[in-house]
Design a protein that fits this description.
Length: about 325
């Protein structure tokens, strides 16, 4: 199914619901706003793709419930997409911008303009139950800003990847929260800044808890309340090439059960507040993870042009 230049707003239910192995291609401009049970719901091995090669935007905002909810489904956007100001709704309708459960998968690529996830009541992006999300840039940028208590939360065996130039800022809790055997990989010039809240002993830019792991290769973590990274309860951090500055709690702090492997030297001016055990002297783990390739929309553009020509004739 192709949805081209569509508005689905102010419904009593969900703006767009897909189930039973359905597929939908949404072409900008489009909006799924002000719906009473969420913007988009994807389940039953279904798939939704947003694309805006024409430079116009797709908006999923001001819904009572998550902007995008996926359980046993997949969601992809190539930008320009805004998911903003969604609030907690009825029953289990969370107020996250993106809520992934049940092994759901999501990809956020900023090809035709920025992706913006902002102002969502419960948090920016939530991953649970072995879900996966990747954020990558093809010339534009992804902003996750001011989403209440957390930017990205990954738990219960979930995974999140930030490939380059993702900016996460302005949250009262962590920019990135990993817990319950979950993992994150941050590669390139990502920027996590101005997150956390004074008086919270668990405040940090990146919180790694409950047998979870964080791998950082480059990027900047600055001006956060608490340490840049807080590792707790059998968790580990593997980092190199990261720039830390002006985090009130220092660079990396671990409890007695957590570990770190890094290129940092304890007590140096570049990494104040470094207090983690190192389990070995073997260096960082070698990681090879490639960002997705830029998609070829030539055939889809041709199909859209034919459809528009037919519509104009009638």
């Amino acid at each position: 199914m192709t949805i081209d230049n569509c508005t689905s707003t102010a419904h009593g239910g969900v703006g767009l619901r897909l189930g039973s192995t359905s597929e939908a291609l949404v072409i900008a401009p489009a909006s799924f706003d002000n719906n009473n049970q969420g913007g988009i719901n994807v389940f039953g091995n279904s798939f939704v793709e947003f694309t805006s090669w024409n430079g116009q935007s797709i908006d999923v905002s001001n819904n009572r419930g998550p902007g995008v909810y996926a359980s046993q489904g997949s969601f992809t956007t190539f930008g320009h997409t805004t998911i903003a100001n969604n609030v907690f709704g009825l029953s289990s309708n969370s107020g996250f911008g993106v809520d992934l459960r049940g092994g759901a998968k999501a990809q956020f690529g900023s090809l035709s303009g920025p992706n913006v996830i902002s102002g969502n009541q419960s948090g920016g992006v939530s991953l649970q139950e072995t879900s996966e999300a990747s954020f990558f840039n093809f010339g534009s940028q992804t902003y996750i800003q001011g989403n209440g208590p957390v930017g990205v939360s990954a738990g219960f065996g979930s995974q999140v990847t930030l490939f380059d130039e993702v900016e996460i800022s302005g949250h009262s809790g962590p920019a990135l929260d990993l817990y319950a055997n979950s993992q994150a990989y941050l590669f390139g010039a990502n920027n996590l800044h101005n997150n956390g809240m004074a008086g919270d002993p668990r405040s940090a830019a990146i919180r790694v808890d409950g047998n979870s792991e964080a791998f950082l290769r480059g990027g900047t973590v600055s001006q956060n309340v608490g340490p840049a990274i807080l590792a707790l309860v059998n968790s580990s951090v593997d980092l190199t090439g990261v720039s830390f500055s002006s985090n009130s709690g220092g660079a990396v702090v671990c409890d007695s059960s957590a570990f770190m492997v890094s290129d940092l030297t304890s007590g140096t001016a570049s990494a104040p507040g470094l207090s983690c055990r190192t389990p070995h002297t073997l260096g960082n783990r070698a990681i090879s993870k490639l960002r997705p390739a830029v998609p070829d929309f030539t055939a889809l553009k041709a199909t859209q042009a034919k459809m528009m020509a037919r519509a104009t004739k009638h």
